Automatic annotation (TrEMBL), chain A:
Keyword Iron: no
Natural source organism: Micromonospora costi
Protein name: ABC transporter ATP-binding protein
Limits of the ABC transporter domain: 11-244
SMART domains recorded: AAA (SM00382)
TrEMBL record, chain B:
Subcellular location: Cell membrane
Protein name: Branched-chain amino acid ABC transporter permease
Record keywords, A-Z: Amino-acid transport, Cell membrane, Membrane, Transmembrane, Transmembrane helix, Transport
Species per Swiss-Prot/TrEMBL record: Micromonospora costi
Native organism taxonomy: Bacteria, Bacillati, Actinomycetota, Actinomycetes, Micromonosporales
One MF annotation (Gene Ontology) recorded for this entry: transmembrane transporter activity
Family of this protein: Belongs to the binding-protein-dependent transport system permease family. LivHM subfamily.
Length: 244, 292
């Protein structure tokens, strides 16, 4: 396990403008995630949450602004190099490859690593963490249930031992019990390994319950950044942007 | 009965070559969603390289190795220099570009080597062993079977058991997710083209000596047969391509043996049409839907 590093900001986003075609979806977004913390980006449908994650991981080329990971500028870094810098992105819909087996999906997450022994150790750890996956190693991805796919996507990211985990709507389509378990796991990973998480969620309640920091987005802008606990308790803000 | 045995063995021997060539088509289809109509011309170009090397060195085997290397190289070049810049939004675009490549390659070969048939040698005798007056497989047939078996097994092993095979499959199924997991998707695509083109070159080396000889159009009919084989097996299925190749080889052998060789090109088209009408996904079409 990597030592826990609380000092400094792991992810710094400055003036990020991005979108599809000519019209930007994100308008000069600023965001800072300290190392070893969980940040939750919440907001209505179409607020630009998914676009934000895609622009951070380079799947979408930013039109302006920049992203720094542990002080390193990521501009011009090819997407396939980001795992090597310690960033894992679990995309919307989770990106489990249905034609590959559970085991192949998981091994894929560590294939880029030079340290083969540690990649094998990380794979074993993920199987211990997600018992149901260990029982279904030879099953194809598309044979899994929604909850199992969630585990597989998360596990595959963890096999790469990331410093920063980008999670897009982990609660989507899952039973509340499964969502609660996922959120508890994120907190556990943060505490045990110093993992930093940037989480995008429609499910505001569960996202703010696990996060240290809440980021409220509306129409492609960051409206408010505050400790998650404060956001949970701020009735005006909840009514205005989060609808509960 | 004797005739049936002979035609069956002969059909399997040709079928092995179709299987290899169909497998090459399937490899590119799986990796890039392109039916590589230029594969025949590319394979012939590799065979001409073998011809030049063998003529210069006097060694069949050096030419054989040169053909394989040239095949790998041509595949990579076609991907990097041509196909990468083709807009794949419409499936027709890469097909038209591939057909353009056929014209280009065949024209260049015609200019450099002329368009007469050149003799193509074999490393083993094509004289069949006779058992009790019945002509069976020749040493060359056995060489063909062995070469195809080695290549098919090697490819199966690469894709199923190695890290690079896993990367190639992942890149083909889910390019975006694969990039997020650190896979160099463009590199895997180039590798897929190279492997497929290498297999195509092998098939050309095996089949050309059994036909009229080396000629810029030497693989045209083989391409049609192999394409039929790939469709019979379902374009997505490597085992299907191998079985499809053997089936097409047998059908053509029986048709040419019992009904006359004039009918074989027609028989290929009838088979292609029949499969497309009855089972458009091919005999080995996966049961599950692709999209998840």
């Amino acid at each position: 396990m990597s030592e826990r590093s609380d000092q400094g900001d792991l992810l710094v986003v400055r003036g990020l403008v991005a979108g599809y075609g000519a019209a930007p979806v994100l308008h000069a977004v600023d965001l800072t995630v300290p190392a070893g913390t969980i940040a939750a980006v919440v907001g209505a449908n179409g607020a630009g949450k998914t676009t934000l994650l895609r622009a951070i991981s380079g799947m979408l080329r930013p039109l302006a602004g920049g992203v720094q990971l542990a002080g390193e500028d990521l501009r011009g870094t090819p997407v396939e190099q980001l795992v090597r810098r310690g960033m894992a992105h679990v995309p919307e819909g989770r990106g489990v490859i249905g034609e590959l087996t559970v085991d192949e999906n998981l091994r894929l997450g560590g294939l880029w690593r030079r340290d083969r022994a540690d990649a094998a150790r990380a794979l074993d750890e993920v199987y211990q963490l997600f018992e149901p996956l260990a029982r279904r190693r030879r099953h194809l991805g598309h044979q899994l249930s929604g909850g199992e796919r969630q585990m597989l996507a998360l596990g595959r990211a963890l096999v790469g031992r990331p410093r920063l985990l980008l999670l897009d709507e982990p609660s989507l389509g899952l039973a509340p019990r499964v969502v609660a378990r996922t959120m508890a796991l994120l907190r556990q990973l943060r505490d045990r390994t110093g993992l930093t998480v940037l989480l995008v969620e429609q499910n505001v309640r569960s996202a703010l319950s696990v996060a240290d920091q809440g980021v409220v987005m509306a129409l492609g802008r960051v409206v408010t950044t505050a400790p998650a606990a404060d956001l949970r308790d701020d009735a005006d803000l909840r009514h205005a942007y989060l609808g509960f | 009965m004797d005739r049936f045995v002979f035609l069956t063995l002969d059909g399997l021997s040709r079928g092995a070559v179709y299987a290899a060539f169909a497998l090459a088509l399937v490899l590119i289809w799986r990796a890039a969603r392109v039916v590589n109509f230029a594969q025949g011309a590319m394979a012939v170009a590799a065979a001409y390289v073998a011809y030049s090397v063998s003529a210069a060195t006097g060694s069949y085997w050096l030419g054989f190795l040169a053909a394989l290397a040239a095949g790998l190289l041509f595949g990579a070049v076609v991907d990097r220099v041509v196909m990468r810049y083709v807009d794949h939004a419409s499936p027709l675009n890469p097909v038209i570009v591939a057909l353009g490549l056929v014209l280009l390659i065949q024209a260049v070969l015609g200019m450099v080597y002329g368009s007469e048939f050149r003799p193509a040698g074999t490393p083993f005798s094509r004289e069949g062993f006779t058992v009790g007056g019945l002509a069976l497989l020749s040493p060359y047939d056995l060489f063909v079977f062995a070469a195809v078996a080695v290549v098919v097994s090697a490819l199966a092993w690469i894709f199923a058991r190695t890290a690079v095979g896993l990367r190639m499959r992942a890149a083909a199924f889910a390019p975006e997710v694969s990039r997020l997991l650190g896979v160099n998707v463009g590199g895997m695509l180039t590798l897929g083209w190279a492997l497929a083109s290498g297999v195509g070159a092998l098939a050309a080396m095996l089949v050309i000596p059994t036909e009229l000889g080396l000629h810029p159009h030497a693989m045209d009919l083989v391409f049609v047969s192999a394409f039929t084989a790939a469709v019979v097996g379902g374009l997505d299925s490597p085992p299907g391509a191998v079985v499809g190749g053997l089936v097409v080889g047998l059908v053509l052998s029986y048709v040419s043996g019992y009904a006359g060789s004039d009918l074989t090109p027609l028989a290929v088209l009838v088979l292609l049409l029949a499969v497309l009408l009855v089972r458009p996904g091919g005999l080995f079409a996966p049961v599950a839907a692709r999209r998840v």
